[in-house]
Amino acid sequence: MPELIDIGYGVEVAVEWLDATLGPVFDFISMVLDALMTVFENALLFSPDIVMIVLLSALAWYIAGRGVGVFSLIGLSLIASMGYWENTMVTLAQVATSAIVALSLGVPIGIWASRNSIVHATVRPVLDFMQTMPAFVYLIPAVLFFQLGAVPGVVATVIFSMPPAVRLTNLGIRQVDEEVVEAARSFGSTDKQLLFKVQLPLATPTILAGVNQTIMLGLSMVVIAAMIGAGGVGGDVYRGITQMNLGLGFEAGIAIVILAIFLDRITQALGASSQKET
């Protein structure tokens, strides 16, 4: 069949128009994200690596138990001994920044979608699009709007990792027992009281599962984001690939795996403890 609709050309025109029209807005977003990443990086790299390793391991022990604490101590020490500590902390700062932005946007949208069927029906195909579009594609407009560096990597990561936060927040609130909701209403609860005192507390385990998935998806983007200069330990993996350096790629990959397990176990433990409380 002949090509009747040139979607690619339309997207290019739209992106160019957005870049020309909303340039100051993108500059402001870039400044905010860069400042947030800088705060996290300075906090993580302020103390010597051994001090930070002990603090993070103690945090893991307190939240997730002795086994995770011991694993964190051994794993983070291995990262430092391989010489990837600074880059791993840069990656952790990027993941933290993208997770905060994704959750700040995703959780309110999920709440809105759970309380409005029209919003739910509108958001659902958008989330499908965001989750199925290849992650590499997000890098193109991110670079056009924010140039090269860590900021476009964070923006692409936010787009890629936000859907679970929206979906699971929406799901958690919708799964709250209708009898509980009706009981709260019968006692005179307003919509605001119903949301913050009944629905959100009961939906917390599901919402925290969304937090876990958002963080894991964000971490999975570090290597892809390194292609546009995001840096961090993902940059080491990318250099190992481009230089066919197996040792470099494997060591950096091990650092990412350790960081992923550390974050996964902590967020899972938070979800499990909230479920026990409810």
Helix content: over 70%
Question: What gross morphology would you assign?
Answer: globular
Mean pLDDT over the full residue set: 86
**Biggest sheet statistics:** none
Can you describe what's shown?
By secondary structure, the protein is mainly α. It has one domain (7-277): Orthogonal Bundle (MetI-like fold). It is built from 14 helices and no strands. Helix 4 (66-82) packs antiparallel against helix 14, helix 5 (85-115) crosses helix 8 (150-161) and helix 5 packs across helix 13. The termini are far apart. The model has no long low-confidence stretch (mean pLDDT 86).
Topology:
Blueprint: H1 7-21, H2 23-45, H3 49-64, H4 66-82, H5 85-115, H6 117-132, H7 135-146, H8 150-161, H9 163-174, H10 178-186, H11 191-220, H12 222-225, H13 232-242, H14 246-277
What's a concise summary of this model?
It contains 14 helices and no strands.
